[in-house]
Amino acid sequence: MANDWIDIHGHFTPPTSSEDREKRWHAMRGEKFLVPEPFEWTPESTLAYLDKAGIAMQMLSNLPKQLDALKESNDYAASLVRKHPKRFGLLAALPTDSPEAALAEIDRATHELDADGFAVTCNYNGVFLGDSSLDPVWAELNRRHAAVFVHPDAYAPASMGRPSPLIEVAFETTRTVVDMLYAGIFRKFPNVAFILAHSGGALPVLSGRLKLLGTETWVPNPNKITQAEIEEQLARLYLDTAATAPTGMAPALHMVPPDHLVYGADCGVPCSTESTMEANKKAVLEYEGLSRSQRDAIGRNVLSLFPAAAARLEKR
Q1: pLDDT digit string (tens) for 216-270?
Q2: Contact assessment for residue 172 and residue 152, using Cβ atoms and an 8 Å cutoff
Q3: Distance between CA atoms of 266 and 10, rounded to whole angstroms?
Q4: Bias category Basic and acidic residues: which stretches (predicted)?
Q5: pTM for this predicted structure
Q6: What is the pLDDT of residue 316?
Q7: Which pLDDT does position 28 carry in this prediction?
């Protein structure tokens, strides 16, 4: 079983009114996200689950699409980390539709909130992560050797009558990371540790196709990314295991080394239940393509990216 694991993929929601939760619930159901009742996140229920699941610390992330709400959300998560420094970590959300606002939030999150790392979403108000306007943001994160958690938009419109969290999140992640690859982001900013949610979506399965065909003359390639770079840059990414085991494990390990697999529960959102999170964790723990020690390490691999969080745990 898991023993003192670290969960990189923990969602949270600042306190909301029952009216706000009801409104959000109806909006979700309108997009075929048919959760049976309004969802409320609390730190108490999350800590109770972490105790039961053998999770020592969960890294919190939340990505509101309005700047004021994003900053308030980061403030709230920072208060939880101060209250529970050995149980929670903060991945401060960045507003990547504005390089200036993102740079300001990096500075604030570092110096005022003691953030452990950062969280971004693939498409923030119409701006994707491969947009060239974000180069100053990546340059600053590269300078800081920052860890950045990349998550798709689970509240995007339904597709073909099914909610986005079912499969569309996997393809948004894939399209975004491929765009970042061709934009030269991984080449220019090698010190950023990118952690992809949901095992990188469909990216590991398609990584062989990218290497095989991605540098052919019929593929636009303005930065002249080479076949060797495709393989090397994709292998540098980190992949979390959220809601993808066991079938996502083999493709992931074709793309990244075992120590770049990190544990993610996808906790704190209505598309995850204790039952689904535990079934996924069990599949990780029983995956026969890795040794016992490699499987056990999945729950601790991420600590190398978060020295402040690791130091807090050492004080236990």
Answers
A1: 999 999 999 999 999 999 999 999 999 999 999 999 999 999 999 999 999 999 9
A2: yes
A3: 6
A4: 1-10
A5: 0.96
A6: 61
A7: 87
Q: SS3 for the chain, per residue?
A: CCCCEEEEEEECCCCCCHHHHHHHHHHHHHCCCCCCCCCCCCHHHHHHHHHHHCEEEEEEECCCCCHHHHHHHHHHHHHHHHHCCCCEEEEEECCCCCHHHHHHHHHHHHHCCCCCEEEEECEECCEECCCHHHHHHHHHHHHCCCEEEEECCCCCCCECCECCCCCHHHHHHHHHHHHHHHCCHHHHCCCCEEEEHHHHCCHHHHHHHHHHHCCCCCCCCCCCCCHHHHHHHHHCCEEECCCCCCCCHHHHHHHCCHHHEECCCCECCCCCCHHHHHHHHHHHHCCCCCCHHHHHHHCCHHHHHCHHHHHHHHCC
Using one digit for the tens of pLDDT, what is the confidence trace for 118-134? 999 999 999 999 999 99
